[in-house]
Design brief:
By secondary structure, this protein is mainly α. It has 10 helices and no strands.
Length: 186
Amino acid sequence: MGRPSDPVRRGRTLARATDYVLAHGLAGLSLRPLAAALDTSPRMLLYDFGSKQELIAAVLAEARRRGAVRLAEHLPPQTGPVHERLRGIWEWISADERAPYVRLFFEVHAEGLVHPDAYPDQGEAITDWFATLGAGFRDVCTGPDDTVTPTLLMAVVRGLLFDLTATGDRHRTDRALERFAELLER
């Protein structure tokens, strides 16, 4: 039996691999160029992660974790009006510096529709936002087990993010979010 993987090295490699994937996407990802960018070898990547698919799964989990932590840190307090909270989330999540996360999110979901076996935790990537969004919008949820309201919130935000990413029309998508916030507040 070989030596166990070094968890510190694996953690550093995972952080850098996540940064790489956020910058370059997953399309055409090959271990050789990834390893070269990380100053390691394809063999060490496989040693630390077992397979390319396990590396990708770890990178996607890390990207989701980073995004969820940052969203939780930037959720507006529940004390303000619904439209202000929703606008605050939209402004944060649609900011240019979050574009790599948004592009990766859509890339994975599009690829997952074509190859669902390659991304078995796709449903989790969608529903793991429920607790965060539900916490910020308890006053419009129907109860502690309400998954419909967070689903609606995330669907609208996700749709507008897709629209903004594909068209670049900030003005129209901002106005659409404002209209949704008005409807939600009624």
